[in-house]
Amino acid sequence: MKKPWILGLTGGIGSGKSAVAQGFIERGVHVVDADHAARWVVEPGRPALAKIAEHFGAGVLQTNGELDRAALRKLVFADPEQRRWLESLLHPLIGQEIVQVLARAESPYAILVSPLLVESGQRQMTQRVLVVDTPAELQIQRTITRDQSSEEQVRAIMQAQASREERLRHAHDVLVNDRDMAWLDAEVERLHNFYLTLRGGQP
To answer: Can you tell me which residues bind ATP (predicted)?
Structure first.
């Protein structure tokens, strides 16, 4: 069997990546989510969690021994140095995890969904990049509604992610997600049919 080619799917926070990924899953495409891989590598009993607790102290753990993401997020977003330390620990582990899951794909192409596709170097694992693009104000609105976070928090996360321009520079395909779900689904259908015609991600 031919190995599937890999499509990178990215977009800023609140852009609708998950909704787009879900559309591809419903069409039988194997999807790997870097966020899920990132959660898995810090589960209790995995070496990364012990290193994080050792570095940041027990304050980043919940009483049940799981990672307290909110506490860790506060620490790393406030201090670029700490964020770099955490990324250098986790990115290689997340990368290994993603590679293993992608290797099990049986669809003609597989998708790696990652909010940090461009800035984490995960783009190197893909043959083509699809960016879900959304006007910044809409991104902020959606995220506040979804996560009950403050506008300030959302803007801080957007600052830490690649800029829109940077993401779009790497895009082969752009899906502007500023309409309703029916329209979005039709766009996914159109892209899916196009991707099925590609070999190795190229026309």
So the answer is: 14-19
